Amino acid sequence: MRVNFRLLSLGLLLSVTGLLLSFVKPTPALPDPLPNGPAEQRWVDSVFNALTPEQRLGQFFMVAAYSNREKAHADRIERLVRNQGIGGIMFLQGGPKRQALLTNRFQAAAKVPLLIATDAEWGLDMRLDSTMHFAKQMTLGAMDDDRLVYQMGRDLGRKLRALGVHINFAPVVDVNSNPNNPVIGNRSFGENQDHVAALSVQYVKGLQGQRVIAVAKHFPGHGDTDTDSHKALPVVNTDLARLEKVDLVPFQKSFEAGALGVMIAHLYIPLFDTTNAKTTTLSKALVTGLLQEKMGFKGLIFTDALNMRSVSKLYKAGELDAMALAAGNDILLFSEDVPAALTRITAAVAAGHLNQADLDARVKKILRAKYWAGLNQYKPLNVAKVRDSLNLPDGRVLAQSIFEHAVTVVKNDDKLLPFQRLDTLRIAAITIGTQAEGPYATIFNKYQPGTVYAVPDRYAPDSTFSRIQARLGDANVVVVSLHQMNNTPTHSYGLGDGALRFLKSLQADPKRKTVVVAMGNAYGLKYLQSARTLVCGYEDHYTAQIVVPQVLFGALPARGKLPVTVSENLKVGTGLATPDLHRLRYAAPEREGLDSKIMSQIDHIALESIVTAATPGCQVLIAKNGTVVFDQSYGYGTYDQSQPVTNSTLYDLASVTKVAGTLQAIMYLKDQGKLNLEEKVSAYLPEMARTNKRDMTVRDVLLHQAGLKPGIPTWERTVAAGTLKPAYYSSQRSDDFPNEVAPGEFSIKAADDSVWAWTLRSTLLPKTKGKYPVEYSDLSFIIMKRLSEKILGQPLAEFLPNKFYKPLGLGTMTYNPLTRFPKTCIAPTENDTYYRREQLQGTVHDQTAALVGGVGGHAGLFATANDLAVLMQMNLQNGRYGGTSFFQSPVVSEFARPQVAGNKRGLGWDHGDPSKPEGPTARLAPASTFGHTGFTGTCVWLDPDNQILYVFLSNRVYPDAGNVKLRTYNIRTRIQEVIYKAMEAKSPKG
After folding, report:
1. Does pLDDT of 29 surpass 80?
2. pLDDT per residue over 606-649, tens digit each?
């Protein structure tokens, strides 16, 4: 009689609440979200008529299934499908392939195809391993572009369909007006009902455009609670005015947009039911009266999980299911005992407490939903293709775009962000709650190299933080990022007391400015609001970690705004826009229209170079439109595979030094009006006036058409019978012998003057038809180094770091790297058996550059691929980078273009020749591509037409400089060719 009494009490309940509901503002009639066409009607009627009354009742049930459990679990679900004829399955934890296999198994056992559902609010990774994460709804609410929510819903819908899923229990349309809400929180779009409604509509449209049923939840609104409904029944003391103006708005807008589903919350709202602690799931006044009759909703109505202890503990087996059905719900989610529930429901029908005609109409509604989802033409999943379809790169690009539009600069009182003059900032990074080698630190170091101090334990004691504070040295800016935050208000969102005290200590230090980055729930900012510079990343997922550093350094502008009120000082809508400083960004190839699958061919070519011993290892970096889309390291420093190459490995750039070093100074002088290209070099270097080089112009020298020989004997003059001459070398460093040629060997102070004298005395090439031939020459840049240092009044080794490398944040680009880095960070080059008689590692390979102390106009620089890319991107952007104009005129474009007929070179820059397959650039690279190659196995090419930057660094000369396989196998040009093929593959077809 207990069930009968409860069911009968529903009629009394309506009489109590009916008057109240009559005051709810009438809403326009909603269209049926399930259009009833003739073909649909025929299929629905045929299926319905083929079912027994008991089988029809089975359609109301959707049970939970896990693809990571034992065989007995799957067997039990299959029995429910076969014996009780359940209508659907909700998949929870597991893996995509295992779920696909179970989906096929269960569908094969079903008389009527099953509706497959899941919770994928922020992506499939909410339930499945090896799948993508998009963003939680608080993150979406922070964005400045609602269209991205639609795109996320659409992409997620495609993935769900590929997995055989027809229903997503999303979006959460609750208006989170209570900061202490432990169960909704960052699952909500925010606290403004209109904003929540607008984003909910976009999500619904995105999902349902892919034939995935969107389920708006948790009706009538779970945002103003402070209890977790999974554990206890939250009480919401609301009134109709608030419901109408706030909580119901997103639901109504979602229904108007065509949402096919709604989920009823487990709440106790006295307004609708005076029965003590009665959940809204069982309230006919709410489910039927408010939702269906007053608001006009005609779609599928789902209970929240009926196994939640907040409600299930109050009822006997099956009792809860029958009462939920009586209240007006269509789908009974997560029933704990289907056979017992069927017995209860059958008894209620027989007793007249449930209307058979009403139940039949609801069964047909479920069948209509199945038809809409395409189950009238069900086909098993192709399991072999599932995983690939779930991890397409376009989804990763979208996920990154979401965070790019969401990351919020909450406070910028010191005007620190974005970091601009990196040469004036000594930045120390501290991560709390994660390891130092994570994606956040990796991207951070792309802009500002140095140690990242990590405190993996976010609840570490004060002593741990004191030790780190003592190691900060002369840092004038400290960036502290807080990771692994949680969503529990009662535990300070995972912020440890020691970490908070540490932040206060840093903020009190007058010598430093502190930037606080919260990689978690925005509500946690209330514990951090004393920071003068405060950034919210909203989540600690991989994508958030790679985006936040890019915002800090101005590679990306800050666009987001807080979607919730954190405190009196940090209200909803708070967010400061920051400019785009046009630094290199980092993203997937598809971000810039390149095909990842084709780009993966680079892996094969790079590995081929290692397997064939063309080089023991290499770095490859590719950027397009200012975005690094490929950045990989391969192999080892040596063939014994003792030291893996990483993105932090420094390489000897060889002749790439010409354009990365000397030419930068020459272009600067031209830009400043201090150098006339048409002037004779002897006008700047009078000693040349008395030589055969007196008439050569700056332009001709840069074009390699001044008659200079490719090279002259230099170091050979300092060796006799294989032994270094004492007149030129000493085993001890001194004022007279300051230049380290190799560890333990130092050249004479006058070595540079000696090389210069030999250059001046060198003979010229013979003329042909009155003109010197175009002949590439190291002497050109030996002369340009001398000239630039004369005009600048300082050595290049001082000028270049101060003018270019330090302001650009190039932590590895340097001459003589052993003065700053251990050998293990540097790729070795040749085993020199004829000059320095040792394995070279960290000293420049070029012998002339070594003789003069490692700083040659033509060779000497070392760097990583990333640092070289930054410098070259500045050149590709005609001198503008990081908010600074390094050149005031388009001098790079002037120098880069070919100057005279019959000479493919620019001023100092080399050009490829697409007509010649053996040229230094790929066949598909346009003729405008400029750059340079290096003897050690390096190259850099800039394509201004397509805004492509390509860097390849290797040590092909290890251990023998006679190894020419890199060129023989066209490794560098073949990799470059892949870039253009990847671009063609993604280009719109005409």
Report:
1. no
2. 999 999 999 999 999 999 999 999 999 999 999 999 999 999 99
356 forms beta bridges with none
**Mean pLDDT of the region 574-590:** 98
What residue type is assigned to position 525 of the chain? Answer: L
Provide DSSP, 241-308. HHIIIIIHHHHHHHHHTT--EEEE---B-TTT--STT--GGG-HIIIIIIIIIIS---SEEEEPPTT-
pLDDT computed for residue 89 by the predictor: 98
- Residue 230 known to be catalytic: yes
Of the candidates 144, 226, 230, 603, the residue annotated as catalytic is 230
**1 band by pLDDT with thresholds 50, 70 and 90:** very low
Q: Please report, as a single letter, which amino acid is at residue 69.
A: R
Q: In what order do the strands lie in the sheet with 627-635?
A: 585-586, 627-635, 617-624, 948-954, 938-943, 930-934, 910-911
Which among 119, 174, 304, 832 is annotated as catalytic? 304
Q: Exposure of 838 by Cβ count < 10 A (0-12 exposed, 13-18 middle, 19+ buried)?
A: middle
Distance separating alpha carbons of residues 152 and 402, to the nearest angstrom:
9
Give phi and psi for 617, each to the nearest 5: -170, 170
Query: Which of 924, 926, 920, 956 is CA-nearest to residue 939?
Result: 920
- Tokens of residue 280, six digits: 């809204």
Predicted local distance difference test score (pLDDT) of residue 237: 82
Q: What is the mean pLDDT of residues 484-498?
A: 93
Q: What is residue 689's DSSP assignment? A: G
The CA distance from 544 to 439, in Å, is 9
Q: How far apart are CA 506 and CA 424, in angstroms?
A: 20
Distances (CA, A) of 597 to 393, 480, 976: 9, 37, 15
Mean pLDDT of the chain: 94
Nearest to 488 by CA among 517, 455, 523, 457: 523
Helix%, strand%, coil% for the chain, nearest 5: 40, 15, 45
Q: Is the dihedral of CA 274, 280, 284, 289 positive or negative?
A: positive
Measure the CA–CA gap between 510 and 859, rounded to whole angstroms.
44
pLDDT of res. 312: 65
Residue 229 predicted with pLDDT over 70: no
Contact 827, 651 (CB under 8 A): yes
Task: Identify the burial level of 621 via C-beta atoms within 10 angstroms of its C-beta, where 0-12 means exposed, 13-18 middle and 19 or more buried.
Answer: buried
Using an 8 Å Cβ cutoff, are 851 and 718 in contact? yes
Can you give the pLDDT at residue 277? 58
Beta bridge partners of 513: 477
Query: Is 266 labeled as catalytic in the residue annotation?
Result: no
Print burial letters for 305-320: b (CB count within 10 Å at least 16), e (below 16): bbbbebbbeebebbbb
